[in-house]
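To: structure subgroup
Subject: Chain for Friday's discussion

All,

I'm putting the inputs and outputs inline so they're searchable in the archive.
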Amino acid sequence: MISTYAPPPAGRDEARELARRELGKQIYHRDEPSFLDRILRKISDWLSRLFDHTPTSNAGGGWGWTALIVLLVLLVLVAAAVWWRVGNVRRNAAERGGLFDGTPTTAEDHRTAAERHAQAGEWPDAIRERLRAIARDLEERVILEPRPGRTADELASEAGVALPDHAEELTAGVRIFDDVWYGGRRGDADGYRRLTDLDQRLRAARPAPLVSGGTR
């Protein structure tokens, strides 16, 4: 005899817990606190209201399956939005090219420009100029080889090898730049302050010593 047993439908509490766990995964929060974060909070609030106000008749029978289907559709849409945004940031970065525009500059030139933009509340430009200052300073100190066309991601990767103690900070700083300059976020004083602090710490940093074979 072929068994026709099927697992019992999920009840309200189980569906709510499933939603909480799924929406808590890191993949849905890479852009926090961005428009995706606000959407996720609205979805979470909507699901909570739905769970709280839906009758519990039939011990969660048909309602349980309906809620799970709705939840899965929402999660698919959110995941698609996340991957679209990540891909869009990368495409924009590739299209706009490197950090510098070819005009000869110094690290102090970029720091001065960054402070000027910050005083005017022009946070995207301030953040870009501060990251340029970091890149140019590393080149001037021969920690990085000067290279036209170097992108922000390449800066984080190459500088992270030379200055491994600051690799995570460099990655976080470049993420601030990417989110603002390529991802369409407005930027703020806190993001600029974090890059300024990173700039100051890197100025006092020393590269990792070379080992045999010419690698660090």
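Points worth raising on Friday:
The chain has two domains: 12-96, 107-203.
The radius of gyration is 24 Å.

D.
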